[in-house]
Amino acid sequence: MPEAIVTQILHFYLLPLIAALTLAAGGKAKSMYRIGGPLMGIQSIFLLWQASTASDMAKMSLILLFVASAVIAASLVHAELTGIMTRPREFHALAILLYFPLSAAYLSDNLGYLWFAIETATLVSAGLVYMHRDKRALEATWKYFIICSVGVALALLGTISIFASTQAGGEVGTMSFSALKSSILASDPDLAALGFVMCLVGYGTKCGIFPLHGWMPDAYSESEAPAAAILSGAFSPAIFFALYRVAEVFAAGPRWALYSQILMWIGVATSLLASIFLVRQYGLKRLWAYSSIENTGLVMVAISLQIPSLFVLQCLNHSLNKVAVFLLSGNVIDIIGSKKLSRIHGLLADDRARPTGILLAAGALAVLGAPPFGSFASEWMIFARLAKSGEYAVLTLSLLSLVIAFIAIATHVSSMLFGYLKHSEHRSPRRVSVAVPVCLLLLSLLLGLSYCFPEALKL
How many CB atoms lie within 10 A of CB 395? Predict the structure, then answer.
């Protein structure tokens, strides 16, 4: 297949070469990093092509890998168009290097390999948080590294426990997902339960479930906007995928009813408490960090439902919308010269800030699940499924969290849009600074329309 050949050439040869030369090149070759973004974009196109001919779990893996590749490409292109990064070479190299453990996580059929890929991605992504090289960035990086490393260590204990549970009765243990699904019924139930809890806590720490979310607001706030976009839009879905694969194994077991309730209620608690934290925020990127935590809760609910298409749709919308608002937030900070919400006003009152302000309002609506954006379709499907399953308490609390989040974010964004803009000494944004967010929001809009009005989009 030609698309598979092109993907392998990019994956195993060109992208690693670009990442290595980006760090090693000197003189006129220093600008070589600029071709990394376009190459990642080409890679994402061929991944989507491959996904169209794949089936079942392979299709899910390829679609989510396409999302990761597209997010990295969008962030790299945006960084190049705006010149917003203080260390562009290091950023491009780390972003491209992060793609490889993410691809290993998505394409692996082994629980142990999946853990190793997530651990490697954690080590690489820590460099993205420390791009500013100041005291706050160092503190955020240290917090990110320590808390997430503890989480990954717990996930390792969970992985070992699941492997040990498959050795019940003298059977040969396995870590293959396909074998785990068939052997879960004969596994040691206590060791399997321990493995599930450890993996849930371990991977949950990395995706920000309550109360293990403490690293996320600082990490997203102190990293530069394109780096925060990659952490939220490319790395977080990989953690969601790891949790989904673990849950998929236990869905075939006798205790799934209990495990699904645990996932569901952790998701509801995470969404509700994150939405409450949204009410009183003082930093622009911290605002979107707590919004990401709120969305993590909805993804956990989607994982508990074990509907692959619904899970993928929720992850896809999360990536599109969060990457768009993080990149736009970088534009706002570049214009205002501050990331404090109390200093950001009047984006619609100034010609140079108006395009960013309009798109930020649209991005906020997309994040909040307003129609006709794609997030509306995925959240509506989650709530419909909860109602069909009779989970009315979960449905009520999930809707309550969305209402609180809507009011909080709408209030903060309205304050940023209206009033008088205080000019800073920072440079005016380039006209192309909104190009990438426009494309992302248009994709989200098209995705929502394809679900809300499928007949209208048929040619």
Answer: 19
Tokens of 24: 């090693």
Tens-digit pLDDT profile for residues 154-177: 999 999 888 888 776 555 567 788
Cis peptide bond prior to 211, omega within 30° of 0 = yes
**341/7 Cα distance (integer angstroms):** 43
Question: What crossing angle do the helices spanning 374-389 and 354-367 adopt, rounded to 10°?
Answer: 10
63, 312 in Cβ contact below 8 A? yes
Share of the chain above pLDDT 70, in %: 81
User: Could you state, in order of their start, the residue ranges of all structural domains in the chain?
Assistant: 255-459
Confirm if 39 and 19 have CB atoms less than 8 A apart: no
HSE-CB for 448 with a 13 A CA cutoff:
24
| DSSP, residue by residue, 418-436 | SS-----SSPPPPGGGGHH
Which two structure tokens, joined as six digits, stand for 254?
A: 């006798």
The whole-angstrom separation of Cα 171 and Cα 165 is: 10
Q: What is the pTM of this model?
A: 0.88
Residue type for position 388: K
